[in-house]
Design goal:
The protein is mostly helical. The chain is built from five helices and four strands.
């Protein structure tokens, strides 16, 4: 499972996310970590909204609903009660959420893939031009 494989590095990254610093010789460096989200075969392309890979180029959809990050804990509690296959099925209804967060990044420190951003900009420009 990914949580187990990343457990040691997750501790370090979460330390930095929560204001920790790096010490290199006599120098202390404070970081502002960000997470860049991109994987070409992922179903859920965006950490901010519920766009699905099948719908990302569908210009008939006016907009996708934003994720409700406040209810993630409720979703995670529900998923924990399910089997692995049940969790995978539940992820379809919950924008890909099928387990606890590994990294504690704030939403505004998560950058979606550039393709998603560019498509949204082009779509908006087309709508404004064709209206």
């Amino acid at each position: 499972m990914v949580q187990v494989e990343l457990s040691e590095i997750a501790k370090e990254i979460n330390y930095l996310i929560n204001g920790g610093s790096l010490h290199v010789g006599n120098l202390t460096v404070q970081l502002e970590p960000v997470l860049v989200v991109y994987h070409p075969s992922t179903t859920w392309k965006c950490p901010w909204c519920h766009v699905c890979d099948l719908d990302i180029a569908d210009f008939s959809i006016p907009c996708w609903p934003f994720r409700n990050h406040k209810n993630w804990e409720e979703i995670i509690e529900d998923v924990k009660k399910r089997s692995e296959s049940g969790a995978a099925r539940a992820a379809t209804d919950n924008g890909g959420v099928k387990g606890p967060r590994i990294f504690g990044f704030d939403l505004f420190h998560i950058i979606p893939c550039m393709l998603h951003c560019i498509m949204a900009i082009v779509r908006k420009m087309l709508r404004l031009t064709l209206s």
